[in-house]
Every structure is written in C-alpha cells, then in structure tokens.
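Our working data are protein records whose layout never changes between entries. Instead of coordinates, the fold is spelled out as a row of discrete tokens. Here is such a record, shown just as it appears in the course material:
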Amino acid sequence: MTIEENSVVVFEDEASLSNTATVSYSWSKKGIQPKICQPQRKRDRKTIFGCVCPNTGDWISSVANSGNTITFFLFLLLVVKHFGNKKVYMILDNVNFHRAKRLKPIFERYKHRIELIFLPPYSPDLNPVERMWWLMRKEITHNRWVKSMEQRVSDFEKWSKNTDKEKNKKMCNLSEIIY
C-alpha cells in the first residue's frame, strides 16, 4: 500500500466511560485496598470514540450511547471533516461494527477520502490510542467520584478539548514513554 502525499494516518479505538470510579495507584496501609465512595446505585456507561494522528498530535473524539455501525459512521464523518481535503488512512482494531457489511458500499464510494487498515487481532499494544485512553483515565476517572454520568461526560469532553498536540505526539511515541 502506498500512502498518498496529501493524506494523514490516524489510529482509532473505542473505550467505555462509566460514572463509577476506578481504583488506581494511591497511598494506603499495606494490605488494605483503598475505597472510593460511590453512592450511585445505577452504573451508567457511554462509548467514547477516539482518534489520534501521531505525526501532528491531532485528537478527535466523540461520545455515544453505544458503539455500533451508526455511531462509528458518525465518528468517521467527524474525522474526515476535521482533516479537510486530506485522505484519511485509519488504523483500527477488528471490532465487528468496523467491518459491517452495510459500510462497505460507503467505503468503496469514498475510498478517495478514507481507507480503513486493520490491525492484527488482539494487538492493542500496536495502537497509540490505547496510551491516550490510559492518560485520560489517569486524569479524569481513576480515584475520582462524580455525581452523574453527565459530569463524567463533561469531564471527558473538557479533557479532549484541552489535549496538547505536543503531549499527544509524545504519548504516541512509545520510545518517549519507555526512556
């Protein structure tokens, strides 16, 4: 495959966003699991779509009630619109709705605008978006309680809006993180 000159390569993935907190690294007495007060009874969940360009640091995201063919297609429209007249090569995993039969005619018709490239099965370590999800969880969900799902979504959208392109590029560069 040849990447065209007026194009961009992006990595895409989905994650789950919940109104419940996750316990992560924190100080506690040895042998005692830290607890986070979570008075809500109902666990709400949303699907978040994220896409990062390792070369530019561009981050595009959206929130949906669930991950399916329709919400994925709406996210693709958002990504294509973000990059203007550039062709988008999107590298992603093998979730069923990424390969939905109803999307094939659309991809064939708009192959001059977007092309999907699938990662090998079970290889999240090859997708830089996973590091963006790690950072997001560290900054907005780990050890943090919120009153409502709306607050969690608001926190995510604020985080997404304020991501720094240079920091994103470093997050996508594995050697920057290891060394």
Q: What stands out?
A: The chain is about 35% helix and 20% strand. Residues 132 and 139 are 11 Å apart (CA to CA). The chain has one domain: 7-23+42-178. The two ends are 31 Å apart (CA to CA).
